[in-house]
Prior knowledge:
Blueprint: E1 26-32, H1 44-58, E2 63-68, H2 71-83, E3 91-95, H3 103-106, E4 109-115, E5 118-125, H4 138-141, H5 143-151, E6 155-157, E7 159-160, E8 163-164, E9 173-174, E10 179-183, H6 184-187, H7 201-212, E11 216-220, E12 237-241, E13 244-249, H8 258-267, E14 280-285, E15 291-292, E16 295-296, E17 305-306, E18 311-315, H9 319-331, E19 337-341, H10 352-355, E20 357-360
Parallel strand pairs: 1-2, 2-3, 5-6, 10-11, 13-14, 18-19
Antiparallel strand pairs: 1-20, 4-5, 7-8, 9-10, 12-13, 15-16, 17-18
Amino acid sequence: MALPRIAALETPASLGYSMPAEWETHEATWLARPNHPSDWPDKLDTIRWVYTEIIRKITRGEIVRLMVNSAVEEKKARRYLGRAGVNLRQVEFVVHPTNRSWTRDSGPVFVRRATGAKLETAIVHFHFNGWAKYRDWQKDRRVPETAARVLHKRLFDAQAEGRAFILEGGGIEVNGRGTLLTTEECYLSRRKQIRNPGLGRNQFETALREYLGVSNIFWLGNGIAGDDTHGHVDDLCRFVNARTLVLMQENNPKDVNYRPLRENWERIPDLRLEDGSKPEVVALPMPQPLFFDGYRLPASYANFYISNAVVIVPTFNDPNDRIALGILAELFQDRPVAGIHAVDLVLGFGTLHCLTQPQPA
């Protein structure tokens, strides 16, 4: 039986919910087993082995809820995970067919509130539509409904101006204290991949406040080259704690990313946190350009994922891998930082953060 929708006037913010930061304690991480061959041409099986390493590291500190297309796929996944030494007691399988595996964008976005001495979580349905680009998204759009049913969670139906409000998790970044970062390229474009036609900046910000409980919104400009989401912030700029963020930097003036990243560095001094203070901003280097079949790939160290036990960071067989890992290790003093080889993974135009969706405790 489908869960009832929440009345439109009952937004998360009106009931005291807000989106927590990724470094706060998780109950679980949601993933979807890869099944779309065209996302990783001729390398789908390789990617499934990369997944086992991702899951092996995450399950050291929390449950992984892994979506699979069928019971047959679950058996195959168990075989891969078992051979890689994953503790299967830390993996819960959810049978839900998906179009793709980018759970950050299609999966359940969680909000949380305090009720007395307890914390209560709920899910916001942001009506994924394939980044306003691809046609095969119908299965992915139903993931939040399945998650709400499996977890027995309240489900909020995100609306703006009387229509379904489209938002992807990779397009936003929060510090869990009220500040949210996003990009104009992704959500204010009037030329390409328009998620919410007719919705202006003010209406968009109103929806963010109502459904994520944020109070302070800052707009960066453009994302990095090769990102087929058209400007997701999770390849560009990330919070590492409530007062510190990392921002990608390209030092080669001849690289296509040099100008847009420089423009974002020119904007970032204007950022004030929710209390009016200035954050600390740390530069992360870009890896050398990666190409496949003539396409520039969105390789970025900013696409790391913060799990309970470890921060996993995409690496690209690049001299800057060591530098980026060192910077992040200095910033994350409370948990280790580990690299995950992502040269094959980024063929799908995303890496670790794009694949994962945290479920807060």
